[in-house]
Write a structure and sequence with these properties.
With 791 residues, chain A is mainly β. Chain A is 4% helix and 55% strand. Chain B folds into 2 domains: 1-29; 47-192, no CATH class. The chains are: A mainly beta (791), B alpha+beta (193).
């Protein structure tokens, strides 16, 4: 194109080219923008009215580049035949286009209280799970089942109370279950944020615990092809993962990305023994394809996750006496030699997620976007069974979710930004027949419709206020067979819900069609004040409502993988939370901190608690029931960072939390205990960006726990034995060593080496928030080597 | 113009992706055989029957039954003890497990016998009985479906039958020492006279 620079027409050189440079959002003139005619090497700048003029130009083609600090540089080509005037709109909001450049504020909303995990940190967890990576943030812990099923927990709340948004799609993967970890490949995201505050209305009304946002990377608009491949090897579990991704970007705004990872581990090992049947196999694939300029764009995504996870064989129990035996024994009885083979009990889950999204910006209005997505989750859980049923899952559920979300962001006002949108969602759960077990979650269909309105107003240069309101309608229609005796006598549903009954009774089971409709109002209020250069105060209030999930409503019977009878109730109502979160932050490399106290009051908090045991053919069997209480959770999260000198850095955090069951005046079950961590890091940028660190993490014993212990009759001993399911494991301290260095290996690529030792002193410990804590210790020391090549 | 072409190409690719996704969707649906989850409990053991016959007198029988027709949860199970043991006698015992929700009732004992190396019955009592397992699995370890019982002096007590799935075999002869998970644990009140 540059070759077309035609001097052929250069006889008449008396034309002028003028223009007016305006802000795309509000039409205001932009002063001091640089106007550069590339092919003539001529400069000028726009005046106070945003206007400019360049005269004595010859006829011909002009390639003009207009740039301004904080704006996207724009290039226009015109053919000059006469005096020409054009209007040029520049974009101020570069962070939407390329977050990498504007790194000072990448928050979801400016008033939101959130913490982020960068790509760099994610890399060091490439063979672990989302929950493991987030566990390092203050106020975030995890509910584990063994060491491979890790559910993130914010302020003691998890599962249905915590929304996980992957690439702007809310993840639906039977997340109600304690042992159902989110089906997300940590390697596919670019940045992970945890929102503890209230700015979550855009994604749902029920983020009582908070929100986890997994955002993809943004790419620079230029012609480029790049990628990376990483390999991770571990001695504990003798496994690791391989991850590779390739990105192609075009100057036109098109981009494409493909990523795949495969992970395999065999049996993990405690300091003293192997944890039999704890291996994992995991395959992930994700692709992105899109076109993005400032004014318009679209994107299509598809990702697939396939997990096969072994469950500790010792955790398979038949009755309460088996549980007592294992609680009283120091070590799990069923132990085998190391193997990669995954036997029953195990979980096998596949998750498909596809999304298309398109947006267009309108002058003097804002950005309008449309998103359509669907997900298919197939969960199979295999248990130890007899005969022909050995390879038949005890749980086989398929959940299909599809949603449509139009959204309009209005940013044309001076100090006011508005965000409004609609959500339409349809969900269908299919309890696939052939399991030979009556399904724990029945077939259901669910319809959701929501509308939200969020406004952000800049009070002054230092203060902002944010307010939002959301309304949600949801309806669930289920089909479930109940035992007639349970329906009529145990639950008394024949009197409470006669309208759900049908005529059909078979095998002493009645076919019922429970239907529920919920209307939820949720709201948020946020305030941010900058106190001086690096000090900020943030205040958030949120009102959130959560409709009961299918397990809370419909569970009635044996949950095989949990080895307990779980009983939900159709009478369970929605829970409503009022949340207050404040944050006082100093953003400074030399000495920075975040002090964030919070208080949550949750009315009709739904909890699953042990209530004793029932007599079955297997003997006494543990029974857990859902009930509702009023609860409060409050605490404080503190993070600090100090730059000691040019090479030494310190990071530390502490989380204090207290949860109360106000109805019964006892502590809440399964609340994280006080924990704190300290890390000392040596960095030398000149020496291959060498980084060496040591980290200590201490988790104190949880002394505030509700006592749900009970007695069970042991027929062999002919006496009642005490079932201590409530008391908590002792405090523990772990040390990790980590190091990394970068090497330039060829012209356009580099090699990163990371060497880590986890649980440096091979400490034996058990964690209160691990559901398998009764059965075995946590994993011992692990040496990990990661090699990553960027190209 | 070239930009437009490129766009068309990308649109085609996008459509291709959508097509592939919908294929995935369809392939996932293929095993959706019907919409009604009609599963009944195939694996359920509803009934435990321990039949004991006096070796010297075939009319002297003890029948110990436990029935929990609706399985775990629901109504509690029911014990039924017919007859009493004769003191200082020898009995032959046979244990059977049934799933009575099937029609005809399914004999689960056959499955247990087939997988004898993965199962074992354990017997304990407080009534002075000596119970010996007389059958063996493929590895020569006891299963305990067939038993031989010697009674002692007259008295009352309990008899407990435990079936372990995947116990350690061979083991120390106690259910707690054998580990595994409990499939059956029933305790009968018995009389020796």
């Amino acid at each position: 194109m540059l070759l077309y620079n035609s001097i052929v027409f250069s006889q008449e050189c008396n034309h002028n080219f003028s223009g007016n440079i305006l802000d795309f959002h509000n039409g205001e003139s932009i002063t001091g923008a640089t106007v550069f005619i590339k092919n003539l090497n001529k400069y000028t700048t726009s005046d106070v009215n945003g206007e400019f003029i360049i005269d004595s130009l010859c006829k011909g083609e002009l390639i003009i580049e207009i740039s301004h600090i904080g704006c996207e540089t724009k290039t226009v080509t015109i053919s000059l035949t006469e005096n020409t005037f054009i209007k040029i709109n520049l974009e101020h909001h570069l962070e939407e286009l390329n977050e990498v450049i504007v790194s000072t504020n990448s928050k979801t909303e400016k008033t939101s209280i959130e913490q982020s995990v960068s790509k760099l940190v994610i890399e060091s967890y490439s063979d672990k799970s989302l929950g493991d990576a987030l566990n390092n943030l203050s106020g975030v812990s995890s509910l584990n089942t063994g060491n491979t099923i890790v559910k993130p927990m914010i302020h003691g709340l998890h599962s249905s109370r915590l929304l996980i948004i992957n690439n702007n799609v809310r993840l639906f993967d039977q997340e109600w279950g304690d042992e159902h970890a989110p089906n997300i490949d940590i390697n596919s995201g670019g940045r992970i944020s945890v929102i503890k505050g209230a700015n979550t209305l855009m994604y749902g009304s029920d983020a009582i615990g908070g929100l986890i946002l997994i955002k993809p990377e943004n790419y620079a608009v230029k012609d480029s092809l790049f990628g990376n491949t990483s390999l991770s090897l571990n001695t504990n579990g003798w496994g690791g993962n391989i991850n590779t991704e390739l990105v192609k970007t075009f100057k036109s705004g098109f981009f494409a990305k493909a990523q795949a990872s495969y992970k395999v581990f065999g049996d993990f090992e405690t300091p003293n023994y192997y944890l039999s049947n704890t291996g994992i196999k995991n395959l992930n694939i994700s692709t992105r394809l899109g076109y993005k300029t400032f004014e318009k764009g679209f994107e299509a995504n598809y990702s697939f996750v396939d997990n096969t996870i072994g469950i500790l064989s010792a955790s398979h129990i038949g009755n309460t006496n088996d549980l007592v035996n294992i609680i009283n024994s120091e070590e799990p009885p069923a132990r085998n030699d190391f193997t990669y083979k995954i036997d029953n009990p195990k979980q096998s889950i596949s998750h498909h997620l596809a999304k298309i999204e398109a947006f267009k910006r309108f002058k003097d209005l804002g950005k309008f976007s449309l998103q359509y997505d669907f997900q298919i989750n197939r969960r199979k859980e295999f248990d130890l069974r007899r005969g022909d049923n050995k390879d038949v899952p005890v749980i086989d559920l398929r959940l299909f979710t599809t949603s449509f979300q139009p959204n309009l962001k209005i940013d044309s006002f001076e100090n006011l930004k508005l965000n409004l949108g609609i959500l339409l969602r349809y969900q269908q759960n299919d309890a696939i027949s052939g399991t030979g077990v009556s399904p724990i979650i029945p077939d259901f269909e669910k319809y959701d419709a929501g509308v939200y309105f969020i406004g952000n107003y800049k009070l002054s240069a230092d203060a902002e206020i944010n307010a939002g309101l959301r309304y949600d309608f949801s309806r669930i229609e289920a089909t479930k067979r109940y035992r007639v005796t349970d329906w009529n006598e145990t639950y008394n549903y024949d009197e409470i819900f006669p309208e759900f009954e049908t005529e059909e009774i078979e095998n002493s089971r009645i076919l019922t069609q429970p239907e529920f409709t919920f209307n939820n109002i949720s709201a948020s209020l946020g305030f941010k004040k900058r106190l001086n250069n690096d000090l900020e105060l943030l205040l958030n209030y949120g009102l959130a409502s959560r409709t009961p999930n299918p397990s809370e409503l419909f569970s009635d019977g044996l949950h095989h993988s949990a080895a307990r009878i779980e009983i939900g109730r159709l009478t369970i109502n929605k829970e409503v939370a009022n949340k207050f979160v404040a944050s006082f932050e100093r953003n400074n490399e030399i000495f920075g901190f975040t002090i964030s106290p919070y208080y949550k009051y949750i009315g009709d908090f739904i909890q699953l608690i042990p209530v004793g045991s029932t007599t079955t053919i297997r003997g006494a069997y543990p029974v857990w029931e859902y009930d509702q209480v009023n609860a409060q959770i409050f605490g404080i999260d503190i993070d600090a960072n100090v730059k000691i000198d040019d090479h030494f850095y310190y990071n530390g955090n502490i989380g204090l939390l207290r949860g109360d069951n106000l109805t019964d005046d006892i502590p809440l079950i399964h609340m994280p205990s006080t924990n704190f961590s300290n890390a000392l890091i040596y960095k030398n940028k000149k020496l291959n960006q060498l980084s060496i660190g040591i980290k200590q993490k201490t988790v104190l014993q949880q002394n505030r726990y509700p006592d749900y212990d009970f007695h069970t009759f042991n027929p062999t001993l002919q006496e009642d034995v005490y079932v201590d399911i409530s008391s908590t494991p002792e405090s523990y301290t772990l040390f990790d060593f980590n190091s990394s260095a970068n090497f330039k290996i060829f012209k356009k690529g580099d090699l990163k080496l990371m060497f880590t030792i986890e649980n440096l002193f091979n400490t034996s410990y058990r964690e209160h928030l691990n559901r398998l804590r009764y059965f075995a210790d946590e994993v011992g020391r692990n040496y990990n080597l990661k090699i990553k090549i960027n190209y | 113009m070239s930009n437009f072409k490129l766009k068309t190409m990308k649109t085609i690719k996008l459509l291709a992706i959508l097509f592939i996704s919908s294929l995935t969707l369809l392939s996932c649906s293929s095993d959706d055989d019907n919409n009604d989850n009609h599963d009944h409990e195939e694996e359920l053991i509803t009934t435990v029957i321990y039949t004991l016959i006096n070796n010297a007198d075939a009319t002297d029988t003890v029948l110990l039954t436990f029935t929990d027709i609706d399985g775990e949860g629901g109504a509690d199970g029911v014990y039924d003890v017919q007859g009493s043991f004769t003191a200082n006698a020898m009995y032959t015992g046979a244990l059977t497990l049934w799933n009575a929700t099937e029609n005809p009732a399914e004999n689960i004992t056959l499955e247990v016998e087939e997988e004898g190396d993965e199962h074992e019955f354990f017997y304990t009592n407080t009534a002075g009985l000596t119970i010996t397992k007389v059958d063996t699995d493929n590895n020569g370890n006891p299963i305990g479906i067939a038993t031989s019982i010697a009674t002692g002096d007259a008295g009352n007590g309990t008899l407990t039958v435990i079936l372990k799935h995947e116990p350690t075999k061979p083991n120390d002869g106690t259910s707690s020492g054998a580990g595994g998970s409990t499939d059956v644990e029933v305790t009968y009140l018995i009389t020796v006279q």
